[in-house]
Amino acid sequence: MSDDFADLRDLYQETILDHGRNPRHGHRPASFDASAKGDNPMCGDRVQVFVKYAPDGAIAEAGFEARGCAISVASADLMAEVVAGRTPDDTRTLFAAFRELARTGACPDCEDAALERLQPLAGVHEYPSRVKCATLPWHALLAALDGTQEASSE
Amino acid sequence: MMDAMTPHAVLDVAAIREDFPILRQTVRGKKLVFLDSAASAQKPRVVIEAMRNAMETQYANVHRGLHWMSERTTDAYEAARDTVAGLMNADHAEIVFTANSTGAINLVAHSYGRAMMRPGLAVLISGMEHHSNIVPWQMLRDDKGIELRVAPITDAGELDMGAFEALLADGKVGLVAITHMSNVLGTYTPAERVVRIAHAHGAKVLLDGSQAIVHRRVDVRALDCDFYAWTGHKLYGPTGIGVLYGKRELLDAMPPFMGGGEMISSVSYETSTWAEVPHKFEAGTPAILEGIGLKAAIDYLLSIGYEAIAAHEQALTEHALARLSPIEGLRIVGQAQDRGGVVSFTLDGAHAHDVATLLDRQGIAVRAGNHCAEPLMRRFGLDSTARASFGVYTTAEEIDALADTLARVREFFA
């Protein structure tokens, strides 16, 4: 591995390269209850998120189909992993914390254990044009939870 | 500087680079390798100084003051129009200053389009247009109930001339609006042939020359095009100023686009009369300093000479294709025979954005994304590409740096 990109390891941590290459949840579930697309027209990232609810209204399973960069695919995959079992409200709270993590590199007042799993994405805060790559799948997820069809990155 | 040993005009790139102060910058601790000139070119010192000098010595509004400053500035602004007219082999009155290429195309869509196009007529564009030469025609279509036709391109990224002519055959196409050089594929369209065929079928022709005029001499009389749109900031000039060339008889017949000061002859509450062209199309205080800067950019470009610029562009493009093509997993998008200094590519296993971020870390600036050409991306089954583009200051060594780094980018994502 070349050392030239050593300082990019903060952005492209092994978790991100791994989940970007081999996403575990990167598929359309056989059946789903809600879905929404996220589109970042500036760069061509596209993601569609699928949600299947449990009888109690929590997210039973999330999946996605994405065409995008390593950051956006890895973020979608980690998101699908951590939102399973969460209620929609809980998911919205987690996104608020994750967004702070992506924008600033930390979320000191956040207590959600799932943030540790999302920590590898904190490196995007040093690359302002890439923050939206990490948050796009979340915008799509929240649009699906809200019952709207389209989301765009901020 | 001419090299006496070579038959062709060549650039003294080292001397040219001295003219561009920004090229001395370092980025992220590395020497800047700026390969994004097709998005916007860097500015030579003469442009920076012309604008600063105007502000420091003679600045005032144009076409209204009777005082010394205003007269000087008006002369300088209209001298810029003369320079543009000379560049394109047009008449002074045929040069309308706009904000950019988009402004020029929208002017034609709003003025010529609204006045001359009616249901039953069509606008014909190509499959390799920038959004700025798609969306204004969609808006006109929806407004006027006309048809919008798209001439397909081949897998090599060239205009399909047979299909192009077939789309004109029914005589309903009132206007052909087509790029002179693709900002994604680098393809030069055969503009003279396009104009000849379109005219034979009764259609007027607008050429989007945003990319082409930077690299090749554009003679609107030889092309016989009806409109030619381009922008200053890609031609080493400032942002905020673009050019619309239009044939005099067409501009005379067209209604104004925007109303306001500058563009009127007289105004009463009952009615107003319009100024002569080109002022009829220049409502409001224009981009005065930007016009002065654009003149300096054109003078600079002509001091190098289009022959040398075109030869330099061709040599760099050939070098880039030779260096990039062998990289494993790299695919060049666009294989036109007649192509210019814009090279788009994809890299297996690495998204264009990730490629651009890694290149940036080495000080290499490229563009990544859909390049404001979504339909063209879809034509090739892509969402995005990375794009390297060249200017008069680009060196073969910079292209070597790109190629060497791309090989390592591939390792990073392997």
Layout of secondary structure:
The complex is a heterodimer of chains A (154) and B (414).
Chain A: H1 14-21, E1 34-40, E2 45-53, E3 59-67, H2 70-83, H3 88-104, H4 114-118, H5 128-146, E4 150-152
Parallel strand pairs in A: 1-4
Antiparallel strand pairs in A: 1-2, 2-3
Chain B: H1 13-18, E1 26-27, E2 30-31, E3 33-34, H2 45-57, H3 68-88, E4 95-98, H4 101-116, E5 122-126, H5 135-144, E6 147-151, H6 161-168, E7 173-179, H7 191-200, E8 204-208, H8 212-215, H9 220-223, E9 227-231, E10 242-246, H10 248-253, E11 264-267, E12 272-274, H11 288-304, H12 306-324, E13 330-333, E14 342-347, H13 352-361, E15 364-365, E16 367-369, H14 374-379, E17 385-389, H15 396-413
Parallel strand pairs in B: 3-15, 5-6, 5-7, 7-8, 8-9
Antiparallel strand pairs in B: 1-2, 4-10, 9-10, 11-12, 13-14, 14-17, 16-17
What is the domain tally of chain B?
A: 2
The CATH class name of chain A reads Alpha Beta
Q: What is the terminal-to-terminal distance of chain A?
A: 35 Å
Major beta-sheet overview of chain A: 4 strands, mixed
How many structural domains are formed by the residues of chain A? 1
Instruction: Provide the CATH top-level class of the largest domain in chain B.
Output: Alpha Beta
Q: Indicate the proportion of strand residues of chain A.
A: 15-25%
Q: How many β-strand stretches of chain B?
A: 17
Task: Name the helicity range of chain A.
Answer: 40-55%
CATH architecture of the largest domain in chain B: 3-Layer(aba) Sandwich
Shape of chain B: globular
**Considering DSSP H and I runs of 4 or more, what fraction of the residues of chain B is helical?**
40-55%
Instruction: Give a quick account of the main beta sheet of chain B: strands, pairing sense, barrel closure.
Output: 7 strands, mixed
What is the CATH T-level topology of chain A? Answer: Sufe protein. Chain: A
